[in-house]
Amino acid sequence: xxxxxxxxxxxxxxxxxxxxxxxxxxxxxxxxxxxxxxxxxxxxxxxxxxxxxxxxxxxxxxxxxxxxxxxxxxxxxxxxxxxxxxxxxxxxxxxxxxxxxxxxxxxxxxxxxxxxxxxxxxxxxxxxxxxxxxxxxxxxxxxxxxxxxxxxxxxxxxxxxxxxxxxxxxxxxxxxxxxxxxxxxxxxxxxxxxxxxxxxxxxxxxxxxxxxxxxxxxxxxxxxxxxxxxxxxxxxxxxxxxxxxxxxxxxxxxxxxxxxxxxxxxxxxxxxxxxxxxxxxxxxxxxxxxxxxxxxxxxxxxxxxxxxxxxxxxxxxxxxxxxxxxxxxxxxxxxxxxxxxxxxxxxxxxxxxxxxxxxxxxxxxxxxxxxxxxxxxxxxxxxxxxxxxxxxxxxxxxxxxxxxxxxxxxxxxxxxxxxxxxxxxxxxxxxxxxxxxxxxxxxxxxxxxxxxxxxxxxxxxxxxxxxxxxxxxxxxxxxxxxxxxxxxxxxxxxxxxxxxxxxxxxxxxxxxxxxxxxxxxxxxxxxxxxxxxxxxxxxxxxxxxxxxxxxxxxxxxxxxxxxxxxxxxxxxxxxxxxxxxxxxxxxxxxxxxxxxxxxxxxxxxxxxxxxxxxxxxxxxxxxxxxxxxxxxxxxxxxxxxxxxxxxxxxxxxxxxxxxxxxxxxxxxxxxxxxxxxxxxxxxxxxxxxxxxxxxxxxxxxxxxxxxxxxxxxxxxxxxxxxxxxxxxxxxxxxxxxx
Amino acid sequence: xxxxxxxxxxxxxxxxxxxxxxxxxxxxxxxxxxxxxxxxxxxxxxxxxxxxxxxxxxxxxxxxxxxxxxxxxxxxxxxxxxxxxxxxxxxxxxxxxxxxxxxxxxxxxxxxxxxxxxxxxxxxxxxxxxxxxxxxxxx
Lengths: 738, 139
What we know:
Order of helices and strands of chain B: EHEHEHEHEH
CATH superfamily of chain B: Response regulator
CATH topology of the largest domain in chain A: Beta-Lactamase
CATH architecture of chain B: 3-Layer(aba) Sandwich
Mean pLDDT of chain A: 83
Helix content of chain A: 40-55%
Low-confidence stretches of chain A: 446-461
CATH class of chain B: Alpha Beta
Strand content of chain B: 15-25%
Structural class of chain B: alpha/beta
Strand order of the largest sheet of chain B: 2-1-3-4-5
Largest interface: A-B, 20 and 16 residues
Number of domains of chain B: 1
CATH superfamily of the largest domain in chain A: GAF domain
Oligomer: heterodimer
Number of helices of chain B: 5
Structural class of chain A: alpha+beta
Radius of gyration of chain A: 48 Å
Number of strands of chain A: 25
């Protein structure tokens, strides 16, 4: 056999044909047709007075003479016939025989064209009659209510029965790496419980053998294994079913480096797959005989079937827990109108629908996080990436940093992400984060520790060594997202989107109703004021007619009639303005470029003529073009300039200035005066209908002008604001999109 | 049958009353005929046409029962005999759109009803000056 095993190829080492056996027994194989000895272990010479080489090619009866079997009636030929005829080896094994006065268990197995006989001493390190205690142990094991307790019981019972220094239950995870999930040990030993071991520690072909050989003993790591000799060179004996099969040197080294003297393992199989191992370590050589191993195997099988059931049960419990979280949150968002609050502020949060360590909710222009997540800027970066790269509503990966290199900066929180898009346009989503496995798991063998050299200057082979290659594999990866997590996220996404849509719908309906009410109000105020005008003008007309045609009126009556006329004037002014105001809301606007120079000049002429303010310094600066409705824009500037002149009319001199500037795609006009100014307490009411400031009471006005101005500006999608100081003056700004 | 100088269609009897006064104040011997709905107005105008007489000025309110002011001016313009009679709208509305529409339908002018009797008198005075003295040739 030319295969040289080292760490790089141990997954290809043909461990079923090592060409050697462990030395605590000897092996003889015969051709299954001729019963001629075809293979024999060299160490038979230590047990029987024969030269191994001489036995090759001899019939088995020849060897039998040297074995000095105690019982004359026992003949190996008969036993071989029996083995040939039986379907499984288990039925006949072991066969108790005496070789040269010593007790042996003969273990028979088939291997291609050969029948293998393995002679193992009954001289066990275990005195106990194992089979007797099994029944009680099984009852003890199965009393465990949870998987964890079940496993812990099993470890304890196995230790009680076979009495190794340390009994661990080792579970294989989905990606092949293993974890110590239960442990019972002597008090002086360091615990391994909770440690994880890289997948490469138990290579694939070794796992296959664990599925076939449900127990496996390595009696003494320091004993030299014995070669098997044969006359069929080039056809190594397949030791798959052998109990004595020698151990891979690399595994021996591995055990030695852990200080283990002997090991024993029981396979745990669930759903036809290797679920894990009961791994027993002894720190000195230890051999337990076939019967004890067989009894242990029984425990393993019973435990396996219990596992299948309990694991399913616990898996479904986990799924149930996720589902319950989904249902609870779905309930929250049904009841609470604040979706973000419903998702993150209750006892059960959106984080609980997965097993993630952290979650970020990007919603309503806010980022909320729970648990361990990247920082806000990093999350924003991820969101940008997801907006571009997410094709479906849900995206998940357990190796995010490999896909999105920026995430290499924070593998400790986001090696795995699950994202669920709520609105692509708004970039609203939920992102769950899982940390890098290396960080979340306690690995056997300290990854930070440098490679050790032994006394001979050779690199130590240890769990730590295999950790390095494992490290390369799991770097930048998190625990995988499970199907039930995905299902929970799919479900909660539907619920959230439904809630968002429902809320959006409610808002839209409200808006529509508001719009209708708004239009009704406009129509109403238009109609009312229009209908008020006619009788009002009658009052005025008759009063004036009375005054001018009735010569019999005395002065006092004339004065009263004049007051009536004044009253009607005031009222019709008010009505006119309300009509204007409502018209702004009712009329469609048509944007045209307006020659502001002409418009402002005309307004200046009108306003100065109407108000007749002496000492007025009216300045017109730049007047860039505005795109707007000509009538409405005229109203805006008439109102603003009229106010400016009116409220500064008592200043000496009254200074009013209008100018326009273009900046950032906007035309901003300012109208400034040195008038009475606006009290800071009125700032938020300046643009309200019918609101007039205390200091404006001495000036004529209706309180409608600025409300109209604001309405017009807003209908032009422009903005209006002002700066003012009492007694100093006011500057109004209006901006229009260019 | 003779025609009034001013043919005024107005459903608001108060304003009609004031108008009668205002016209008299401008010129005592001007005759005014007031009709309070569009249909009757059109009927009467047809009778006048048959009698080959026509008013010197037609004043119309915008909102009229029976037939609106706009429809009325359109019908008037369809009668060849009245094609060139000046039609002036006299309305409460100061909406430029109303003014624009009335001109499109064939009116010669659009006036917003002035506020008060005194203003009305000045308004009628200017109407009289323009349509009765300066533009005599039209009639």
